[in-house]
Write a structure and sequence with these properties.
alpha+beta; Folate-binding fold; three-stranded antiparallel sheet; 3 strands; flat
């Protein structure tokens, strides 16, 4: 999963910031561009444009 998460500036504890950075993504409704790593296939990164409301893949590029 290649989304670049944004850590809220209100989190000051280093461990909580790391947890938030790694696991708490925005997941806003609408199209997002993400980088996916194809672990069990070609082992390459793929750029995917995905509609978050229904998880439909709109475009992808190797």
């Amino acid at each position: 999963y290649g989304e670049i998460p944004r850590v809220p500036p209100s989190i000051t504890d280093a461990d909580l910031r790391d947890l938030d950075r790694g696991f708490m993504h925005e997941n806003a409704e609408g199209p997002v561009v993400e980088r996916w790593f194809h672990v069990f296939g070609c082992r390459r990164w793929v750029t995917v444009k995905r509609e978050t409301s229904n998880d439909e893949i709109q475009t992808r590029k190797p």
